[in-house]
Design brief:
Blueprint (H helix, E strand, L loop, with lengths): L7 E2 L8 E2 L2 E5 L4 E8 L5 E8 L6 H8 L2 H5 L8 E8 L16 E6 L5 E7 L11 E3 L15 E3 L3 E2 L3 E2 L44 E7 L7 H4 L1 E6 L5 E2 L4 E3 L5 E3 L5 E2 L4 E5 L14 E2 L20 H9 L11 H8 L18 E7 L10 H10 L12 E7 L12 E3 L2 E3 L3 H9 L4 E3 L6 H12 L4 E3 L10 E5 L7 E5 L6 E3 L4 E3 L11 E7 L18
Helix pairs in contact: 1-4
């Protein structure tokens, strides 16, 4: 994206007698030229990310999840007022169908050979307060008893820095709010059934270990420090936990270290950090710093969302259980319509904000209406001006972006598989000046950066009005149009790069000037017919 200069006369004491324009001074020897640009105003933007959760998308979800920082970098430091929500292309399953994802997660305990030993799943309807654990009622300590929402209640005892819970200790009864005692039964096979002895204990089987307490949303410290999972050994023998994994249905997973054992009737606390000075005063048994994250009930990411990158990773890693009939446009329509706008998705669509949709899918859209219908509806949310000003509404597509030579052939392929041509998404992206990128790219980082820059509203490249002698470039940054508000001189190849092919200044990651600041560029004009080093080939010829 490049700037467009326009002349604007300003009063005395301001940046030259012009801003957003150019002038040339002549003397006997040289022509000195000046260009002035003003950075664009930062956006207020609502970003709805539509992620394909069909069976072929696991690698693409992982690449997207790991590139949040590249996506968000142009929002940070320039006060872009953003909201980001995530939905899936599955518009059939009730749990999706346009509902913002978040607050749904699971902890799955697997043996070293992949057998599921224990599992607890929750959703946003559990609705326990921040700063309190989810504590399992002592009467429900079975692999099926803890599947019930009413078997869990909030922790009540303060520990460490003030969060509530009983890590490593016996859980209190849930009392009147807890379940009625019943025969939860379930598969409670003993350790004698197919168990193998190690030097220190028995390899656990189903029914030996129970997930008995979870800290999903600590308040005293950040999630990446204060989350933890407690396991209880309900068998009558010591268990060897070496090589067991704690994972979810998405991209998260961590392995319990070799040599970890748990005596009969005892509890073990698996935490994100073993440093009790940093983790909220938790005395942890085992630290699983990498790969274990627990999703809380955040549905909309904002500039002040703590741990936004981690939450984003959980949101986009939606697994691959969605329908194979991808309906991204229908899902977005559901998300931005009633009743969801007043219920699950309340607060996402702001009247004062621009709206940007981003589709990430390896299949074409199979929604029920013509593309015109969705364009009319989405742009209409932002008023008549949105049909002319595509900053108010736009759609970008990370899809099979190239039409194949023969109908039915893949649009692109990679080591992760093939992608069909996303013609309907490409059509709407073209109509709204959105970005179109290939989902088959191995590296999503450049895609994420370009999307983030575009949605921020900021400009990263400015085309000069004349051809400069490159060794005379002088670039200055001002926080206003006044010469008195000079901020700094910019150094070529440190603060910016000069792009010869486009005769422009390009600002890379971490270099983009802040919203509404001024960039002043002074240089001597390259004489007609002159050739400089950057214009020549290796043999010295133009």
């Amino acid at each position: 994206m490049r700037s467009e200069s326009r002349a604007l006369g300003l009063g005395g004491g301001l940046l030259m007698a012009l801003a957003l324009g150019a002038c040339t001074e002549n003397n006997f020897y040289t022509q000195k030229h000046t260009d002035v640009f003003q950075q664009a105003r930062r956006n207020t933007v609502d970003v709805l990310l539509v992620v394909d959760n069909s069976c072929s998308m696991v690698e693409e979800q992982n690449k997207l999840a790991s590139n949040f920082q590249a996506f968000i970098q142009f929002f940070q430091g320039v006060d872009v007022d953003y909201q980001i929500g995530v939905i899936t292309t599955d518009n059939e399953a009730e749990e999706f169908s346009g509902r913002l994802v978040g607050g749904d997660d699971e902890v799955i305990l697997r043996s070293a050979d992949g057998l599921v030993l224990e599992r607890v799943a929750w959703d946003r309807d559990w609705d326990l307060p921040a700063g309190a654990s989810w504590s399992l009622d002592p009467t429900m300590m079975t692999v099926t008893g803890n599947d019930r929402r009413d078997a869990w209640c909030s922790g009540v005892s303060a520990y460490g820095a003030g969060d509530l819970g009983s890590p490593g200790a016996e859980n209190p009864s849930c009392g009147a709010s807890g379940p009625e005692a019943d025969d939860t039964g379930g598969d409670t096979a003993s350790g004698d059934s197919g168990a193998e002895e190690s030097g220190e204990g028995t390899a656990p089987v189903v029914g030996d270990l129970i997930i008995s307490e979870l800290m999903v949303d600590p308040a005293a410290v950040a999630d990446e420090l204060g989350e933890w999972v407690e396991l209880t050994n309900v068998s009558d023998h010591t268990l060897d936990l070496s090589g067991l994994t704690v994972a979810d249905d998405g991209r998260n997973g961590a392995t319990i270290p070799a040599g970890t054992t748990l005596a009969a009737g005892e509890r073990i606390v698996l935490s994100r950090s073993a440093d009790d000075a940093a983790n909220g005063g938790l005395t942890a048994s085992v630290a699983l710093a990498d790969g274990m994250t627990l999703n809380n009930d955040v549905l909309i990411l904002k500039p002040d969302t703590e741990g936004a990158g981690e939450i984003f990773s959980e949101m986009v890693a939606q697994g691959t259980t969605g329908t194979g009939i991808e309906m991204g446009l229908d899902a977005a329509l559901s998300a931005l319509s009633e009743p969801l706008l007043s219920t699950t998705n309340v607060g996402f669509l702001r009247p004062e904000a621009n709206l940007s949709l981003i589709i990430v899918s390896d299949e074409n859209d199979s929604s029920q209406y013509a593309v015109d219908h969705y364009y009319t509806y989405f742009a209409g949310l932002k008023g008549d001006a949105a049909f002319r000003d595509h900053s108010l509404f736009n759609l970008s597509a990370v899809v099979g972006s190239e039409e194949p030579q023969f109908e039915g052939d893949p649009s692109c392929s990679s080591d992760d598989g093939v992608a069909s041509f996303g013609s309907r998404y490409v059509d709407l992206a073209q109509r709204t000046n959105g970005l179109i990128e290939s989902i088959c790219d191995d590296d999503f980082s450049p895609i994420a950066q370009e999307l983030g820059l575009t949605l921020s509203g900021l400009v990263a490249e400015y085309e000069l009005s004349e051809r400069p002698r490159e060794d005379t470039l002088e670039v200055s940054l001002y926080s206003s149009a006044s010469e008195e508000d000079f901020e700094k001189e910019l150094v070529r190849d440190v603060d910016y790069v000069y792009v010869v092919e486009r005769n422009s200044l390009r600002f890379e990651e971490g270099q983009v000037p802040p919203s509404q600041w001024f960039i002043k560029v002074e240089y001597e004009l390259l004489p007609n017919g002159a050739v400089q080093e950057s214009d020549t080939g290796e043999d010295g010829t133009p």
